[in-house]
Amino acid sequence: MGSKDALAFLASPEVVAASAVLGKIGSPEEVLGKPCNPATEVIKTVTVNPKPIEENEKSESESSESSSGVLPGFPESIEGELVLCDADNINTDGIYPGKYTYQDDVPREKMAQVCMENYDSEFGSKTKAGDIIISGFNFGTGSSREQAATCILARDIKLVVSGSFGNIFSRNSINNALLTLEIPELINILRNKYKDSEPELTRRTGWFLKWDVPKSLVTVKDSQGEIVLEQKVGELGTNLQEIIIQGGLEGWVRSELKKEESSA
């Protein structure tokens, strides 16, 4: 989907019918002999012009004074030690082994035990409750198994930070109340720090991340307490907070149904 090398494409019934008539991918207009040209050139990159320093400092000052709302039951801040899983494209099978995917009776303790097993068999012995996973780019690529999110929660890890996430994993994380943050700069800083060190699949960094939810601000400190990174992140909306508070989308739907029943 979206690639000229793809073996299959998604299309509307009209486009499928028109393409069958034309013998190539085309539009219904072309069947009627009308030319169909793209209205505009496809934008492949977006360039953000940096603000002047004075303007940037002013906007940061104003945003620090304001804060987004935090619902009752949602934490004001989330913090923990960063555990580096230094790899790109860690897929869902690496996070949660496929042999367990269709076993509905796997207990939570077992899910926690096998979390990241196919990525690193030592992950379980190197992590503890309250840690924050930080990984490379395209974390969670692959299949749509929701256990890739729930097994991380089973280890009592509430937040995963990455350079970027697979789209399906991002959706599953929201559905199952696992928080995620994309901070490419942070993974690059850590990779630079350990570039001359002996490779480790899972590494305790001694660095601590704090996410101030009302201020939408992430602060990372090293083992000496020095600030390594301080960065604004996207505001966590109240709709998403409600889903997290209810333990995921299923819990949120149940709570909404109860509200409707009580008001009926």
TrEMBL record:
Q: Coiled-coil ranges per the record?
A: none
Q: Which UniProt keywords apply?
A: Lyase
**CDD domains, per the entry:** Homoaconitase_Swivel (cd01674)
Which GO terms fall under molecular function for this chain's record? Answer: lyase activity
Identify the residues that the record assigns to the Aconitase A/isopropylmalate dehydratase small subunit swivel domain, covering every copy: 55-185
Q: Where is this region: Disordered?
A: 48-72
The name on file for this protein is Unnamed protein product
Please give the organism: Candida boidinii (Yeast)
Q: What is the lineage of its organism?
A: Eukaryota, Fungi, Dikarya, Ascomycota, Saccharomycotina
